[in-house]
ArsR family transcriptional regulator (Saccharopolyspora terrae), 104 residues
Amino acid sequence: MDDAVFKALADGTRRAILDELTEQNGQTLFEICARLATKHGLASSRQAISQHLEALEAAGLVRASREGRYKFHHIDTAPLEPIVERWLRKGREHEDQPAQHDGR
């Protein structure tokens, strides 16, 4: 699962999409495209942004819900937790422990 998350996060447009969903969750494809164009200067087609959203969904970073004919996209940070656990929290635990010296 980490590989899919890292692959999804490797793309700058996908990171910008997540930034926008963090700022305003529950956006339609049209809203995401408009925000990417105005705030990030990304003039990608709706089809291209839709493909990026599909990759983010496949990685578990975005959930979509339908209300009538509209599809809303929501960020899901749960797939990031194992990454945080793997490096950040474990690293902080080691910082809290006194350094062991081997006597050199």
The helical segments are 2-9, 12-23, 29-40, 46-58, 81-96. The mean pLDDT is 89.
